[in-house]
Write a structure and sequence with these properties.
The protein is α+β, with helices and mostly antiparallel strands. The protein folds into three domains: about 110 residues, Arc Repressor Mutant, subunit A (Orthogonal Bundle), CATH 1.10.10; about 80 residues, SH3 Domains (SH3 type barrels), CATH 2.30.30.40; about 80 residues, 2-Layer Sandwich (Alpha-Beta Plaits), CATH 3.30.70. It is built from ten helices and eleven strands.
Amino acid sequence: MTTSQETNLKTFKLIRLLYRKPYRTYEELAYLLGTTIRTIRRYFDTLREIGYEIKQDYYRRHYIDIDIYPAEKGVSFTKEETELLWHLLQTDAHQHTLQGDILKKLFIPPEFHPMADQYLRSNNAKNVAKLSQVIREKKQVIILDYYSANSDSITDRLVESLSFSENYQSLYLFDIESKDERTYKIDRIKGGVEILDTPQTYNKPSKPIDWFGFTGEAPIAIDIRLTRFAATLLSEEFLGTKPFIIDTNSRNAEFPMSFKAEVRDFEGIGRFILGIPGQTQIKSPLSLKNHLNSRIKKLKF
């Protein structure tokens, strides 16, 4: 692959990352694309030149404003245009007259989305396609026969879709009955999706979501020591955590790695810790230790 081809590919990937939650900092984007912060800034300049408006939130995370994103105006790729897009990725098209227009139209329907093809089974893909439509049209939807692991029950849920996780395995939404934001697993939708004509009513900004798929009112700083095994597992299962995992170069041979970051809820990181007993050491906060101890008390064998 030539340098210009690689640049085109990384630009497309960057647009995808900026369009989806969770939003990311310069450092996180650079890591995910295997490049430098300086290069990410140059990509940002290019995107702004062709019409994208890139914004920054309170936590210095960057995103493309969905309200002015061309896909919201009904622009999408046909099958033929999608094939052309992939052709452009394989050829030297950096000086092509239409390249800027294609970048500005970059919204590939789910049936052509490579990440969807990679991560979703065919039944899930149908649900993702409908939920993508709901997000674009801002309508309410009934999720049929959703399985809840907490209550061990299957029920229908009236919700308003907000966004997908990066790998399309989860859906962030507003639950009408409970009146709060929740995360639903796509795999747990057993009966499909029914789109309603009722307009979406929840218009508040979505709460930030941590790497483990949980939301919360405020960030919670955590400091955890890890074995090398735990550090490797954490970075592989939750890719966005890798920039925050460092080698302490300390004499602590058992827990030489450190993970200092912010989460939105203890449930996600707690599940990870309890899944690898003896591989972590909690430095702070004390409330995380209390959360884990309360979970351990409920264990029955």
